[in-house]
Amino acid sequence: MVQLSILILDDEKVFRDEIREFLENDSFIVHSAALPSEAFPILENHEIDILILDLRLPEMDGFEVLEKVKKLYPHIEVIMITGHGDMDAVIQAMRMGAVEFFPKPFRLLDMKAAIRRTRRFIDLNHRLKEINQSYQLISKDLRDNVGYEMVGRSKAVQQVIDLMRRVAAVDNTSVFITGESGTGKELIARGIHYLSDRGDKYFHAVNCSAIPETLFESEFFGYKKGAFTGAEEEKAGWFEIANGGTLFLDEIVDMHPLLQSKLLRVLEDRKVRRLGATSDISVDVRIIAATNQDVKGCVDENKFRTDLFYRLNSFEINIPPLRERPEDIPVLLNYYIQTLSKKLNKKITGVDNRVVAAALLYPFPGNVRELRNMVERAIILSDGDKLTVNEFAFAGLKDIEVDEVDINVEETFDLDEIERLTIIRALERADNKKVEAAQLLNITRQSLDRRLEKYGIILD
After folding, report:
1. Per-residue pLDDT tens for 330-365?
2. Which has the least CB within 10 A, 8, 144, 205, 335?
């Protein structure tokens, strides 16, 4: 638990000394000041959690101090005290952000209880600050090393980032990433690599579905000169190339069953032998595998070896499809418009509201990759500085006309209001028939029922 730091601002020395001694005996870190001009340097140079503030002060009154503190240090909780308190002063102080108000004289035990009531909010703020700093550092590392950030504000994306951070801190644990095509499985793999102690080593990505059986051993294990016809020089295999770093095996489930057994042996022994060689080479490689298929179903159908699955699946990360996290769509739209317009040397300053509404209706079978490609195409086609629905190809919207969805979307995007109005429009088109409305929205009937309950929409 965080040790609280408290500043007492009161011009009465006897009061300052008395409350300071009382709080220090309870293991709080306590600072004190008689004047606002003494208090603000303390606020600037120390991490203060709680300000105990007298209303009547020289230089400026407590309300002025409270206003300035809340503007400069909004995280600080303020407890007001006064010998001249009245109800109007209490109301004003609370409206300005004070959490407690005590008229003098008061019992020190009551002040202590108020501080303890306040600490739960302070502990939460400290925790949120730590989480935000962690996400910011992760995002910066990913941007610097992978080329772009993990973009999104949904809980699902934050959870994926948290899992990345946790598994990256544990060296050599195999990771299995699942998710539909286009969700960013390789980005997650690269993120884990660059956040780990292996970040300065080599990251090698392999598409397992593209490896013919005849080339498996030569590509994965390498070969000696003269090992076979055409082997005119030595070649290191992918395990050797990634030695000390990370080997990313994409679409692992598509690997031929015979090749799966050979891969399993290497994963168990951590040794490879080049074709034509007589000795083994030890390798230290972190394996990250990925698939867009139902891997457990493939195991049940004997398409994927059970022992290989459990060898690779020490830690699983599932990336939800974009349609299940619509709150990320406006964020991704803005991000890709900004980055791709610079790349394509186009000055795009905005996007029509109806594009956001249409994107929220669209199921994005190709996920984030499809959204990115849509934005790139739209920027290329655009002749102005604002993207409109005319430049986008939102196929599959069925009977809903995009032009009829006219929602005032600000930069922060009121996603709940967009979704609510979109559902109402679909129900109107379907004559309040849930099954048809769900089909128009490209969601299940159960998902529609949950949204109706969420927004309090009652059908006649």
Report:
1. 888 888 888 888 889 988 877 877 788 788 878 899
2. 144
Mean pLDDT of 101-112: 81
Q: Helix, strand, coil proportions of the chain in percent (round to 5)?
A: 50, 15, 35
Of residues 400, 319, 304, the one with CA closest to residue 359: 400
Digit-coded pLDDT (tens) for 222-241? 888 888 887 778 888 888 88
CATH class of 5-126: alpha beta
- Look up residue 138 and give its two tokens: 């992760």
Tens digit of each residue's pLDDT (9 = 90 or more) over 296-312: 999 999 889 999 999 99
Q: Name residue, tokens 């004070």.
A: 98
Rounded to two decimals, the pTM is: 0.58
> What is the rounded CA–CA span in Å between residue 372 and residue 247?
26
Residue count (the chain): 460
Q: By the 8 A CB rule, do 171 and 161 touch?
A: no
Q: Which residues contact 380 (CB under 8 A, 6 or more apart)?
A: 344, 346
Report the CATH superfamily, name and number, of domain 148-320. P-loop containing nucleotide triphosphate hydrolases (3.40.50.300)
Q: Hey, what are 235's tokens?
A: 């070649």
Domain boundaries, the chain: 5-126, 148-320, 323-455
Neighbours of 57 (CB within 10 A): 20
Q: What distance in Å separates the CA atoms of residue 371 and residue 364, rounded to the nearest whole number?
A: 7
Give the three-class secondary structure for 361. helix
